[in-house]
From TrEMBL:
This is Protein-glutamate methylesterase/protein-glutamine glutaminase. NCBIfam families: PRK00742.1 (NF001965). Belongs to the CheB family. Contains a C-terminal catalytic domain, and an N-terminal region which modulates catalytic activity. GO terms for molecular function: phosphorelay response regulator activity; protein-glutamate methylesterase activity; protein-glutamine glutaminase activity.
Amino acid sequence: MTGGRTSVVVADDSHFMRSVISDILETGGLEVVAEARNGREAVDAVRDHRPDVVTMDVEMPEMNGIEAVERIMADSPTPVVMLSAHTDENADVTFEALDKGAVDFFTKPGGEVSMEMSRLRDQLVEIVTTVAQVDVARSHGDESRSHAETGTAASYAADPTVIIGSSTGGPKMVERVLSELPLDADLRVLVVQHMPEGFTGRFAERIDARSAYDVREATDGARIGGGEALVAAGDSHMRVKNYRNGRLRVKLTDDPPVNSVRPAVDVTMETAAATVDDVLVGVILTGMGEDGADGICRIKETGGHTVAQDEATSAVYGMPKRAVETGCVDSVLPIGDVSAGVVDAITREVT
């Protein structure tokens, strides 16, 4: 930090966007120490200025955002927020940047950019400030496979459901947990990742490719049974509408944001707790804010089991911390043990 202020390098090939972003961050109390017109300049600026955080455009000449993130993580590990447009192509590239080490992303507005960016100022300042605190050089926990995949026969509870909530730093964590959940556990899985419209469909496709579960983006009225998962659609709350004979149905709504977000983890967890009468597990992974804390308590109050990711493996220990502070969390686990924690919960329920 420079003089106690969070220092930022702003990388974007548009002079206009660099100016808008820099003005917003400076007005929000951050210090922009350098601006870069392409990925190569961004890499050089990080090496020269050692900022606390970088905002990185996706598409840039000479070296794009993905290459720049990869170089930065190899040479001068620094937290990066990707700034991405609302397009399918940019969604794919943004997720690739997350794979390379970027912590989170923020979607650029369309239309009257300067007006919309001003409206989104507080959100941008908050996410850049939060991501700046992430220790990207730290190993994020045990990278070995969870012992949920031992292949040992287990007696699982009938028709279990798990609700997973996450935010900043969450996409890779969600992918890992889903990839490690055994298909023979026959779970119904609902995922609420704070993510804008236009990205959740691609996110669901990525998880589907990495998991034995059938994963898709939620649509209004969608139903799932065992071995299936839904990812809450961006900009819509996902409510559990009904549950019969092991099949769960959701309803999407555009009700006002809860905890300043939509979709909100609390909405899905609270409606699941009120509706699902079989085994229910709630999981809170990395993220900023307090979304999911109330939902975890609702699940606990109905006899469900609750899990939170630990601080050491969380990119941002905000949501898990708030959940733990309620006293309603049964298990606090490193990311490598979360899927095993879910399996243990639904196995214990059999006895």
